[in-house]
Amino acid sequence: MVYSLGDKVTTKKKHPCGNDIWTIVRTGADYKIRCDKCGRIVMLSVSEFNKAIKAKKEQ
Length: 59
Known about the structure:
Elements: E1 8-11, E2 21-26, E3 30-35, E4 41-45, H1 46-52, E5 53-57
Antiparallel strand pairs: 1-2, 1-5, 2-3, 3-4
């Protein structure tokens, strides 16, 4: 699946704040995603990102 900036994604595990919806803020050799509830930013390699993502949310 192709992901681009601004896409909303759902992760398999919830963040400690209780949210599982994230916004993609950087793509390339790695992905940077921001939690929609608390604003925490996490950077993941492509393989880690593909394992962690459950679905792409329709906007």
